[in-house]
Design brief:
4 copies of one chain form a homotetramer. Chain A is α/β, with parallel strands linked by helices. Helices cover about 30% and strands about 20% of the residues of chain A. Chain A is built from 12 helices and 14 strands.
Chain lengths: ~350, ~350, ~350, ~350
């Protein structure tokens, strides 16, 4: 498809999400990593020395000898910039890169709520990417910022999209069991999680994110703004002793109640919008529905579709609302680095680079 | 208080709940273990040989040399019989013991739904124990059967009792994160739970139990029957890599909505009914409310009140209903062996033995 | 290379090692699975129903609908038969298959000590495979039995081979930290290993195996017998909370003591015998030596060379003997299913099928 | 025994060893905690706010409201000072306290090798405490410094003492499987140890400590110096997914080889020196020998003797040397805080305060 690969960079390259970016960009058919940026204490070192690699797949050869540069628009020259930065740093740096002409595909939460910033899961709201046109006019940027949601919102929102399309969703109660890699490295001390769970995630903003972000992604783009979906959310978040893979237990009220079998059929039949369907990172399939009474399970199902597929199980009647089910999504692939890369691919496909 | 200790027996003494009974009955001020019963393959062996001890406290000295007897009314002579039997076996044996004159204090689920069988958590529904009078008349038994609820119902129901008393409870969404010891020994294979969660418990009846049992315990005793509380429940159950301690995340709708602070005050102020207050196993306090944003945690909080206290935290507004909170309860102490012992103490206190 | 694939079967197909066979044989360039055999209670069922899949890679499509057959020479028609049978069953069945003409490539311990049975790690003792000629004459079989060692012997023996070749090995003290998958499924109960280690493996024969098997593999084939290597072993085995990957800490006395750097050079320079070098399952490289002070680690290093490479680290002076080091090997790939497949490939390559 | 309790302080009170000191000193019959000292960022705060409590027993009531003071001789007025300081800080502060008149009972490694500093495990080398007389003359201190060994040396040395007394010990090969609490808090990141082991501990000095410290403790006090025992050690250290309890696998060469049964008898018969026998923290018994083939195990055995007993198992012949066995010791009780307290009690008993 491409005659020449598009130069891309990773900001925050040494952290655990940065590592996933580097791993997923290995041999990417469209993109070529030309710069790895990290904090001052890593700058100047070969990546292999600077990063404490935590993935169970080896560090890609291309990255080992790349010398880390500062995360500045001077030092990083790339058409696409993947941001695995911490929020406070992303707040400042992402607009600077967008202004300097880069398409910033961000995993940070800084601009997810921006009125002219697409919050994307291409398999469900690819059309929201058009918002970048408005963003560019608004801000006078030649680049742009596009974002992906919080890793816990991800799988849940994909499941809800199908149900909302077909039957209308009114209310959602959701409880998460989140993996350790979501906290980065060093992240959660082992003494805090061995023989234990922690009934809260992060510094407390996690539940609010999961109660708000799906409403934007399930919302309607019209007239250069996104109208939030009129769905109510109540969310509990928990950290559990799992390396990768966030599980969410959900109870849902529908406008047009259906039997579980009908919902399962709809979930299985779902296909991504055309523009998001055949990209290198497109999930294949978008959704897998398991029939077993004890699935999905993080260790067994997180790598479905190379970690991009949303796995759903235990779709059954809810005694108060209409349906109960369980959703699993790989939090550092579909829920973080893979998400930003998929977003970048959509941007290219839509000619918005 | 007692001049002579009451002879008691443990049925199913070698299993993990049986072990908790043996441990908690060590030096009990009112009870003396006179018989340990188990399945045929253990009969005739000293307990120390027959049981694969899984608790992290040592096997009590009194039990080591007791020779295991069959679980029959002939072999077991005791006023109180603690049942840690599997359901199918309990179905048959418990009535036989009751008929033979024993007070069967059961942790099995066999008779929890029996119309004349008390399902007890003495700190909240001690008055239900009076149902045994009716049971005896009904069945013509000199003994009786009294039961404690499923370990996941336990903490949740105690929390709900206080809220229901004060503000009225209408609906409950609950998601559990349950400990491994709830599955007994050998129970959950390590390959199933390492780096994993299982989004279902048991063979599937667990959620239905937790959706029904609290309604009986929160119900009203009148005219020799218990009217189920008119509260709706929707429950998800999960198994997590925790040894002991079940955590439940709950969202609750109230008849008279209140601020979290008011609910916390009520939870902290709660005292058990007089008859259940000063028994050897009474939880002290009944409820502990933690203020930290990340508590209760199983490893840190399960032994509150020697494993009998219900620990609650994160009491906050629910965006759809009224309140959200987290409840922790030790599943093999308050939720199993400790529960049956506390029930037996209540029976004695009320002169119903 | 092959015009037509060789028909192979897996005995004990539903267990955890059986699953690895099925996974590793997916798309094998030389072999085609024509039969899956298991115990009576699985016979007649499609594999997808009969097996409780525990690997984190999906069940290969080819296996899902294969109907399980009994492990008998009538029901199983294949040139090569991979045995993941339990010892007692292997005792009887493997000779029956060999007599019936099949090349039995066994992971069971039954015949490892047989005087005419090769115990193989092709990258170090490929020449021992010639023993099957003698075995066939001896037993009058058209088929044969060849075996791979215990999973804990595997990595250690490969490391020792290099040191023995170059410097002579006299004594070995080894302590293992073994993964849970080595015990099969359901295997180790979670209550036994959470927040715990077990300072023994199996029913006690494990240490004796690791003290004896390397001596055979490091021995010399001459005149139709193998002379055991004159090396002394002392072994401690432990089970730890790791899913896959056995770690061994070793202290070694050499005939010609060398500096750690010299040993590292020799380990890195090692190449398999020519006949074992370019087979589909050949480890690439045979040995990887890590320089970091805290490697190898099971989670990070077990998949080196697709799980076939032996990873060594911390090569340093021993204060009593000569060298200390740490060896890691994937126990169900290099140490079990992958081992038997590699053995089968060697058999084919040497024209001994 | 005491008419008035001796005022004691804890330096480094907020860390995980500091927490054990506070827990073990709750209701101590001889000592009363009068000061808790920690780093600047905690000074001035009530202990309950400053410490992130990681023990599974509740924070003692006495400590909750104590206001943290700086770790200086001005701020801390106590006869006995328990040091849970980091090495670099202990280097400076411990002599300052000793000079100011305090008996410093230290868990830090700073002065363990000091020629006039006792390295104590009272149940085996109580007489070494007399070295403080020499230390006081030497340094002109009214106070003193006494130390306990590294947590991994502890159990091993106690086992070796008995064998050395009775049969003479010549060589020791030891491999440790160490608990996470040994690394303090936050310590080991969960991503480093879930489904993993780390074949090294600390920054590399651990093995050298365990190869040297036992030689001092097993050495002979004469003429104001300790002659190191002439025993050779080779040690491998590993970190495993265990919360508390260090396990060591040991192979030992004896001067007068004996059968395992004889060694077991000697281990069981061992009694502490008279002066160390009836102190509040004396282990009861000093050593417990388990007969089972799979014990000791950290989760089941670490609390033997309230965490002060050394548990030994699998005493058997070693195929190269004479004996193999497994030792377990609670690393933050017998191996750290409990050790320093036991040392302090010995100091009092011997009139050396």
């Amino acid at each position: 498809m491409m005659t020449e690969k598009i130069p891309v960079a990773v900001l925050g390259a040494t952290g655990s999400v940065g590592q996933r970016f580097i791993s997923l960009l290995d041999d990417h058919p469209w993109f070529k990593v030309v710069a790895l940026a990290a904090s001052d204490r890593s700058v100047g070192q070969p990546y292999a020395n600077a990063a404490r690699w935590v993935l169970d797949t080896p560090m890609p050869a291309y990255a080992r000898d790349m010398v880390i540069v500062p995360a500045s628009t001077d030092a990083v020259q790339a058409k696409i910039v993947f941001s695995a930065l911490h929020t406070e740093i992303a707040n400042e740096l992402e607009p600077a890169f967008a202004k300097a002409g880069a398409a910033v595909c961000s995993n940070a939460s800084s601009y997810r709520r921006g009125e002219d910033v697409p919050l994307l899961l291409p398999e469900i709201n690819a059309e929201h990417v058009q918002l970048v046109k408005h963003q560019r006019r608004n801000k006078g940027w030649s680049g742009c910022i596009i974002t992906n949601p919080n890793c816990t919102s991800t799988g849940l929102t994909i499941a809800l999209k199908v149900l909302d399309n077909e039957f209308g969703v009114k209310k959602v109660f959701a409880t998460s069991l989140q993996a350790l890699s979501g906290a980065g490295y060093p992240g959660v001390p082992s003494l805090d999680i061995m023989d234990n769970i922690i009934p809260n995630v992060g510094n407390g903003g996690e539940e609010e994110k999961v109660e708000w972000e799906p409403r934007k992604m399930l919302g309607t783009l019209s007239d250069e703004t996104i109208e939030l979906a009129d769905i109510k959310f109540s969310v509990h978040t928990n950290r559990v002793a799992v390396i990768d893979g966030h599980t969410v237990c959900a109870s849902v009220e529908l406008e047009n109640p259906v039997e579980p079998e009908t919902a399962i059929q709809a979930l299985r039949a779902y296909a991504a919008p055309l523009s998001a369907r055949d990209l290198p990172s497109s999930p294949r399939p978008v959704i897998e529905v398991r029939d077993e009474a004890d699935r999905p399970q993080p260790r067994l199902d997180r790598m479905a579709g190379n970690g991009m597929t949303t796995v759903i199980g235990r779709v059954r009647r809810d005694p108060i609302l209409d349906l109960k089910f369980v959703v699993l999504s790989h939090n550092t692939i579909r829920g973080a680095a893979g998400a930003s890369i998929y977003n970048a691919e959509l941007l290219v496909k839509e000619g918005l680079l």
